[in-house]
Amino acid sequence: MTTLFYLFSNVFHIYATYQFSNVFLQKKKESAKSDIVLFTLYYIINSCAYLLFDNRLITILSNIIPFILIFLYYKVSLFKSLLSAFVLCVFSIVVDTAVVAIQSLLNINSAFFDEGFVSNIVLLTLVNIIAKSYFKYSDQIVKLPIMYYITVIFVPLGSIMVGYFVAKDLNVISLILSVIILLMNIVILYLYDNLVNMFSQQYETDVIEQQNKAYLNQLHLMQESQMKIRFLKHDMKNHIINMQSLLSAEKYDQLKDYLAETNDYIYSNNVIIDSGNETIDSVLNYKLAPLENNSVEKSYHVVLPEQILISSFDLNIVICNLIDNALEALSLLGENDEKKITIDIVYKQGYIKILVGNSFDGIIHKDKRTRKNDEINHGIGLKSVQNIAEKYGGLLKTDVSDNWFETSVIMYEK
């Protein structure tokens, strides 16, 4: 029975090791079959070494060597492979030692503890926390909510307590219950991870939809501008005759008015920003269009090259979130309040600086959170901006003075 307990417990130990490897390895989806084969062999080697030799050193080596070989198979450098194996070994030893110490201190006598099920639950929990916090994936759009960490901590703790009471003895019932408890932990973590991924994908979809609307708006502006230019070219002969007539008659004021009218005709569309970077211009024109026919004092300064070595998708997330927050703050002001917005986006050699400032009602939380109803999505937006800034080695900074709120973001080209 002890052997059966070990074999089932070791399945979960190898699974925790597999999850640990995912922290360091950037594997493709096609690698799933390879993972199954490699970690099955890992399980067989490790289990046989323990059962046949019953030697601690051999058992440790049977954990480390296959792990290193798997890393080398995925073309990871020898140094990183050795480092990963060392970290895994240290983690396992620390967890086992801590569990044994607690078991001895509290005088716990339970097969659930003795046969390594508790150690595997703790190891799996730590791996998930590390994978989702310290080793953040570069394409992760949103930070995980605190509820994730509460779930990751309290579900295993509850499982350990239940396991202690229902799996005390070495028998078939205890084995089945122990396996079920561990499976429940894995399933809960798996489902919650999928929920977080779905939420992140939905957020990404919303951003893409907003970006597409901005591109469509920019296309309409360009088509309108081109159409007016064609009309102007068609009537250019008549315009030249009229201007020559005014010039000959020395009617300079009328000529000036005529030229101004012609200029207004050409540029009488909704092109607000024209920096030359079509991607950023389209987003800004789309977002700032609602401000054109109201009393908001506007100041825009956008100097960008056509191409920037920063993802357009990431730039759109940053710009859209900052402008949305500014527009929301302006909407909360009264009719007699001063309304002002400044946008300064400048590219310098190797980095881009985005600054959005706006007047607001002076009411703000200590942690600089919004007061609007959609506070959850607002928080996610700011976290997304911070994540993206950090992704490009930059930073997000906010400044508040009197009734003025300013947010600046620096992002370095990759």
From TrEMBL:
Domain Sensor histidine kinase NatK-like C-terminal residue range list: 312-410
Gene Ontology terms, MF aspect: identical protein binding
InterPro entries: HATPase_C_sf, NatK-like_C
Keywords: Membrane, Transmembrane, Transmembrane helix
Chain segments annotated as transmembrane: 6-24, 36-53, 59-76, 83-105, 117-135, 147-166, 172-192
Any single Pfam family the record assigns to this protein: HATPase_c_5
This protein's name: GHKL domain-containing protein
Organism: Ruminococcus bicirculans
Lineage of origin: Bacteria, Bacillati, Bacillota, Clostridia, Eubacteriales
